[in-house]
Design a protein that fits this description.
- The structure is a single chain.
- The strands form five sheets. The chain has a nine-stranded mixed β-sheet with strand order 1-2-3-13-4-14-20-16-18, with helices on both faces. Strands 8-7-10-5-6-9 form a six-stranded antiparallel β-sheet, with helices on one face. The protein has a three-stranded antiparallel β-sheet with strand order 11-12-22.
- The chain folds into two domains: 309 residues, Zn peptidases (Aminopeptidase); 151 residues, Aminopeptidase i, Domain 2 (Roll).
- The chain has 489 residues and is an alpha/beta fold.
- It starts with 10 loop residues before the first helix and ends with a helix.
- Helix content is 30%, strand content 22%.
- It is globular, with a radius of gyration of 25 Å.
- The protein contains 15 helices and 22 strands.
- The structure holds zinc ion.
- The site of zinc ion (ZN) has 7 residues, from helix 10.
Length: 489
């Protein structure tokens, strides 16, 4: 570490040039990852493809094809496996030298992000335009979603089980979509409202088109029933949209009942600042930690002592419920499978002992001090852009409620590990005590008996369509996750 101005206690000031370059290089592929992964399904597909490329094998197929051979284990140290959970969550592991039942080292992040979801009956025509109703997902500030180019990402499942993927609004030459806002000239009443009420949830309707269907001609009897109905009701613009959807995707209005269409910001992730030290983009909560964790797993050298586990969960932004969320049995079941596959005589106690002996980094972003809003932070216990990865002993709100509170024994061991590897880390909490708070997946794993701490990248403009992080913090977070998965004892 180079000597510098002591007051400049940020990683950039202390790091060697070669390390700074490594941080910039590490983030090279990260921008492309953000652009191709704007939904939990897209992150899952990207991750599975990358794992396959790196010799990870699907655990469910290994188990299905397994013959019970006495005296041999299904998985050996160094084996790499993964599990795709319903296309929306992923678990992966590198089997360590010790049996999994003696505990694993895991990094868990979430791959869902705040957005707007199409309702199941979304389309309506009004004022010669066709729009889609949405229901927002996760904690958004609604005013940030108007007058912003939007893209549609998602899947539609047809009645016969067929799957249609939709991804429109991102590529050059493609149209985008938008939610309109009131002109200032007529917004006198709106401007007097609280910010939280100025834009309503039911007002987040996405503009999809304005062209009416062609006038009914001789070939009218060839049109499908749905389109005829719209025309008879005088909804010519909606009828035209239905025609386009039918022609482009082979889908009909009723098919959206079994669809998940996510409305996300259409702009790409970008370098920010003259010095390009920051990255701005949508969905970095929590894909920045997910990306760092994935790279950390792939970069493990040799066979780790303890089994290294990666967990990408869904539904964190709405409370982690459901069969793809971190409150599900998914992690417990995966670890039980690893225990069973690394022993000759499995019993249920082994999985329980594995949980209690495991250590997990809950990899999620932290609020960084924003120079425009410094008053929401306690400066002694705040996280700063450029100071490295954040270790948060506790989260929660109104008196630490709902969060995890890590044990100091675990924190002490992590200090030793991270300092030994010269990893820049800082510690802080989520703002002033009485101003709010929050929590993430940490508590659910801690409930299983694991040692867990929140640990991730500090961020500005969290949950906005354009979240900001520092390249130096991403790089140090990656190094911390890697050191932990590789060698935490
Ligand atoms: Zn998060």
């Amino acid at each position: 570490m180079a000597k510098g101005n002591e007051a400049y206690d940020i990683w950039w000031h202390k790091a060697e040039a070669v390390e700074k370059k490594a941080a910039f290089d590490f983030c090279g592929d990260y921008l492309a990852f953000l652009d191709s992964c704007k939904t939990e399904r897209e992150v899952t597909a990207y991750t599975v493809a990358l794992l396959e490329k790196n010799q990870f094998k699907p655990l469910d197929k290994i188990l299905t094809g397994a013959k019970n051979q006495a005296g041999s284990c299904l998985l050996q140290p160094g084996d790499k496996v993964y599990l795709d959970v319903r296309g929306k969550a992923v678990l992966a592991a590198i089997i360590g030298k010790e049996p999994a039942a003696q505990g694993v080292n895991a990094v868990a992040s979430h791959i869902d992000s705040p957005r707007l979801d199409f309702k199941q009956t979304p389309f309506y025509e009004d004022t010669y335009m066709v729009l889609a109703k949405t229901h927002y997902y996760g904690g958004i500030k609604k005013y940030q979603w108007v007058c912003l180019p939007l893209a549609l990402h998602g899947v539609v499942f047809l009645k016969d089980g067929g799957k249609v993927e939709i991804n429109i609004g991102e590529k050059e030459g493609e149209p985008c979509f938008v939610i309109t806002d009131l002109l200032p000239h007529l917004a006198q009443k709106q401007m007097e409202k609280k910010v939280a009420e100025a834009i309503t949830g039911e007002g987040l309707n996405v503009l999809l088109g304005s062209l009416p269907a062609e006038k009914a001609g001789g070939e009218d009897n060839e049109k499908d029933e749905g389109e005829k109905d719209e025309k008879e009701c005088g909804q010519l613009v909606k009828a035209n949209l239905m025609r386009i959807l039918k022609e482009t995707y082979g889908i009909e209005e009723r098919d959206f009942v079994s669809a998940e269409i996510e409305v996300v910001p259409a702009q790409p992730a970008r370098d920010v600042g003259f010095d390009r030290s920051l990255i701005g983009g949508y969905g970095q909560d929590d894909r920045v930690c997910s990306y760092a964790a994935l790279k950390a797993l792939l970069d493990i050298e040799g066979i780790p002592q303890k089994t290294a586990v990666l967990y990408f969960s869904d539904k964190e932004e709405v409370g982690s419920q459901g069969n793809t969320g971190a409150q599900s049995a998914n992690l417990g079941n995966f670890l039980a499978e690893l225990c069973a596959a690394t022993t000759e005589s499995y019993n249920d106690l082994m999985a329980r002992r594995c949980y209690a002996a495991s250590h997990l980094l809950s990899a999620d972003v932290a609020a960084a001090v924003d120079p425009n809003y410094k008053d929401v932070q306690d400066p002694l216990n705040a996280n700063y852009i450029g100071k490295g990865m954040v270790l948060e002993k506790y989260t929660g709100a109104r008196g630490k409620n709902g969060g995890n509170d890590a044990n100091p024994e675990f924190i002490a061991a992590l200090r030793q590990l991270f300092d030994g590897e010269e990893i820049a880390w800082q510690t802080g909490e989520l703002g002033k005590v009485d101003l709010g708070g929050g929590g993430t997946v940490a508590a659910f794993m801690a409930n299983m008996g694991m040692q867990v701490i929140d640990c991730g990248v500090p961020m500005l403009s969290m949950h906005s369509p354009f979240e900001i992080v520092s390249k130096g913090d991403i790089y140090n977070t990656y190094k911390a996750y890697k050191a932990f998965l590789q060698s935490y004892k």
